[in-house]
Write a structure and sequence with these properties.
15% strand, 3-stranded parallel β-sheet, alpha/beta, 213 residues, TIM Barrel, 6-stranded parallel β-sheet, 10 helices
Length: 213
């Protein structure tokens, strides 16, 4: 079964920026999600890089208006855990054939990651038209995606990795970019101190960024 294009497009179109969240403090999950949603960024990617990531996802999923997904998904087991935790989408840093095939067995869509034209073509052959470009800045950033636009015209990207508010504007100006992923909206010191108002303000600034027409 090919990627659920309609569902993924709907999710990725909700805001120009998807916060990429690395959090292990479950008690801070809900206030962080509330601040991001209040600032206009409802789509939240919680990476499975911390011991309590699934509990963080469960708490964030309780926030009204939040569309929570799992990130750094690398195995079918993690896909199952994502569904059980209440995720509405999944994101992977890569696009191995085993992972793409396993995604067919789950009801929520997967956004696989690619870094080369060959990887993008392989994912496309499996029915994936929306792809994460990662790590975006390390791989050449805007110039590379601009070069992809013509030969890979049927693929739309969500670049992630090394992007800040200034660079985000350049990515979002590209016709083959639907949104970007980033963590600049959630400075570590703001999370540690519980400065949710600051995070809401940064989210509001990011939500105001314009996507390409």
């Amino acid at each position: 079964m090919p990627q659920d294009v309609a569902a993924l497009r709907a999710t990725l179109s909700l805001a120009p920026v998807i916060p990429v969240i690395v959090l292990d403090d479950v008690q801070k999950a809900r206030p962080l999600a509330e601040a991001l949603v209040a600032g206009g960024l409802p789509v939240l990617e919680v990476t499975l890089r911390t011991p309590h990531a699934l509990q963080v996802i469960e708490e964030m999923a309780k926030v009204s208006g939040a569309v929570v997904g799992s990130g750094t998904v690398r195995s079918p087991l993690q896909m199952g855990h994502s569904v059980d935790a209440g995720c509405q989408f999944m994101v992977s840093p890569g696009a191995s054939p085993r992972l793409l095939e396993a995604a067919d067995g789950f009801a929520i869509p997967l956004l696989p990651g690619i870094g080369t034209p060959t990887e993008a073509m392989t994912a496309s052959e499996h029915g994936y038209n929306f792809l994460k470009f990662f790590p975006a800045e390390a791989l050449g950033g805007v110039k590379v995606l601009k070069a992809y636009a013509s030969p890979l015209s049927d693929i739309t990207f969500c670049p992630t990795g090394g992007i800040d508010v200034v660079k985000a504007r350049d990515y979002l100006a590209l016709p083959n970019v639907i949104c970007v992923g980033g963590s600049w909206i959630m400075p570590q010191d703001a999370i540690e101190s519980g400065d949710w108002r600051r995070i809401e303000g940064l989210a509001r600034e990011a939500a105001a960024l314009k996507k390409a027409a």
